[in-house]
Design goal:
single chain, mainly beta, 5-stranded mixed beta sheet, about 10% helix, Phosphodiesterase_MJ0936/Vps29, metal-binding, Phosphoesterase, EC 3.1.4.-, Metallo-depent_PP-like
């Protein structure tokens, strides 16, 4: 399973198009909110997407829950779960919906961690990054009970690759 995850593009539709075109071999594309585009924008076609605090189109859901290859994926922008202060609310909500992974944005800070065998990933921002200078997105893969998260710049240059093995 291979997923393309981005967030906080804040009106830059072209970066969404560029990143999608650079990563055609994925099972799903996720946008964690604050696209500031219309829900039916062509560059968001087929994308699992949620509403961020800057999105005005109320057709975006606040949360998305879906499965790929038996893996349950939870997506929320994070502003309603106070992710800038703590991921505890996100952890509780992810457990409540029984998801295996949670994707979120809002803080514009690229990062990933495994908590209670649940992977949490923030792809950073493709427009206004915080904590690092590079605009970013991630590719998340799951195979043999191990998550692999690779962060990329908006130009497709690798920032990091981390592996997270599930405990038994």
């Amino acid at each position: 399973m291979r997923l393309l995850v981005m967030s906080d593009t804040h009106g830059d539709a072209e970066v969404i198009k560029r990143v999608r075109e650079a990563n055609p071999q994925v099972d799903a594309i996720v946008h964690c909110g604050d696209s500031e585009l219309s829900y039916d924008h062509p560059y968001l076609d087929g994308v699992k997407k949620v509403r961020g605090n800057c999105d005005r189109d109320d057709r975006f859901p606040n949360e998305e829950l879906f499965e790929v290859d038996g893996v349950k994926i939870f997506v929320a922008h994070g502003h309603l779960l106070n992710v800038k202060s703590t991921i505890m609310n996100l952890l509780y909500r992810t457990k409540e919906v029984e998801a295996d992974v949670a994707f979120f944005g809002h803080s514009h800070v690229l990062g990933a961690e495994l908590v209670d065998n649940i992977l949490f990933v923030n792809p950073g921002s493709l427009l206004k990054p915080r904590a690092i200078t590079e605009k970013s997105y991630v590719i998340v893969e799951f195979s043999n009970q191990t998550w692999t998260v690779t962060g990329y710049t908006d130009k497709g240059e690798e920032i990091f690759t981390n592996h997270y093995a599930l405990s038994k």
